[in-house]
Amino acid sequence: MGYFLFSYGIKTKKIRAIFGSKDQAILEKIKNSDIFDTYSDCYKALKDIIAGEKLDKEFNFAYGYAVICLCDVLGQKLPYPEEIKLGHETDLINKYLKESFKIDDLDIIDPLLADNTNPFDIPKIEDFPIIGLLSREDLVILKEIFEDINITDNEIEELESSENGDDEEKSLALTHIRGIIQNIDYCIKNKLDLITFCH
Question: What's the predicted TM-score (pTM) here?
Answer without folding.
Answer: 0.93
